[in-house]
Write a structure and sequence with these properties.
Length: 420
């Protein structure tokens, strides 16, 4: 007999229960706030796109070849759950006419759900969530530097102290062919020792050989992209490094750093954390100057990054950065629902965190429930519908009589006297 899946979540997914949601809301608020301070506007895209969009940008990457969730809807249309945010954002900007309004176009997304069919482990889920920023229309390294500075500032404000930035350049269409040839020449003599994935990469996408998780030693001796950059790419990287140093953003050069999608050009970067195991990369990004044109738009330089929120929260936990729990109930109104609910609603409309008991329990049970909620005050309306309300201070263990209309102001005044 097959086990029931009615009460089981799908493998590779996670529920966010109320206690954990506190940390999620905190980092979401920080992300939205810092993106707005840097001049980015929020964008939201559907969870699924036409498969042509997703597969068009990464036919030789593992994500597209092995990890996408593809399906056909009832109308026979081929659709894919988005594995990342950049291509859908480009599609949305083109379709929504954002590029016609003038450059630069700066957008961000937060808690974007992304779907990849891969072996679940800590920090790697089949459904995960991202905070990301994208800049369109800025060809110079200033946009790259701003993105790295934003990501560094976000991590710092979130409470991450042990993150480090890694930087590389993988060249452009003018100089990458020579580097590709150098990589093929280096790995060709080692083809028999390569894993199955890397033998395929040798033919289709040699840059991905540098990211092999099976044999890192071979990659350590591979040619460096920086030694094969054209003059323009070299100048771009040099200016970017100067901007990062002027902005006080520390980084190190990582010759093995590549990104997981084919559309990247020139700048690639990652922020990593040493305390979250094998999935050390909190997030990363780079420049993708050819993507807008590849998706049917005009030639448009672009750069961006995405950061995994699950990995960020894992790193915050490792560093002991615990979010403050939700503020407790400020006023609990006890008694029959016919009297308690109107008073609770009035308090809520006035901005108080107020609650009541919808179960119709005894007054003694309601007081126990108020105590579990951490209620600062409990109000008990006068029996028989009279105007008096007994207001009990649960911390001071005192009580007073107030009239119905003065209940909210009495609670507010007491809270203000104690600093909230």
């Amino acid at each position: 007999m097959k086990p029931s899946t009615v009460a089981s979540r799908p493998r590779g997914t996670e529920d966010v229960l109320p206690e954990a949601a506190v940390s999620w809301r905190r980092v979401e608020r920080i992300a939205a706030d810092i993106a707005a301070r840097y001049g980015f506007g929020e964008i939201r895209t559907p969870s699924f796109e036409y498969s042509e969009l997703v597969h068009h940008v990464g036919e030789t990457t593992d994500v597209v070849q092995k990890e996408t969730y593809d399906f056909t809807d009832r109308g026979g249309r081929a659709l894919t759950l988005r594995p990342e945010g950049t291509a859908p954002v480009v599609r949305a900007c083109l379709e929504g006419g954002l590029f016609a309004r003038g450059f630069p176009v700066k957008v961000y997304y937060v808690t974007l759900s992304a779907f990849r069919y891969e072996r679940p482990q800590a920090g790697r889920l089949r459904e995960h969530h991202q905070f990301g920023c994208e800049v369109f229309g800025a060809p110079g390294p200033a946009a790259d530097a701003e993105l790295m500075a934003l990501m560094a500032a976000f991590l710092a404000e979130a409470g991450i102290r042990r993150a480090s930035a890694r930087l590389n350049s993988i060249g452009c269409p003018a100089c990458r062919p020579a580097y590709r040839e150098a990589l093929v020449g280096y790995y060709a003599s080692r083809a028999d020792a390569l894993c199955g994935d890397c033998r395929r990469r040798l033919e289709q996408n040699p840059l991905r050989l540098l990211d092999c998780k099976v044999d890192r030693d071979a990659a350590l001796g591979a040619p460096h992209a920086l030694d094969h950059l054209c003059a323009d790419c070299s100048a771009h990287l040099a200016e970017l490094r100067a901007l990062l140093e002027a902005a006080g953003v520390p980084y190190s050069i990582d010759h093995l750093l590549v990104r997981g999608f084919d559309y990247y050009t020139r700048t690639v970067f990652e922020f990593v954390h040493g305390g979250i195991g094998a999935q050390a990369a909190l997030g990363g990004g780079g420049r993708y100057d050819g993507l807008v044109e590849a998706l049917g738009g005009p030639p448009t330089p672009a750069a961006g990054f995405a950061l995994g929120l699950e990995r960020l929260l894992l790193a915050l936990e490792q560093e002991g950065a615990v979010a403050e729990p939700d503020a407790p109930c400020q006023l609990f109104v006890a008694g029959p629902a016919a009297r308690a609910l109107p008073l609770a609603l009035e308090a809520r409309r006035a901005g108080l965190r107020a609650d009541f008991d919808p179960l119709g329990r005894s007054l003694k049970a309601q007081f126990r429930h108020a105590d579990r909620l951490g209620a600062r005050f409990v109000a008990v309306p006068e029996a028989g519908g009279g105007p008096a309300v007994t207001l009990r201070d649960m911390e001071a263990k005192t009580q007073q009589e107030v009239v119905h209309d003065a209940l909210v102001s009495a609670v507010r005044g007491a809270l203000a006297a104690r600093g909230g």
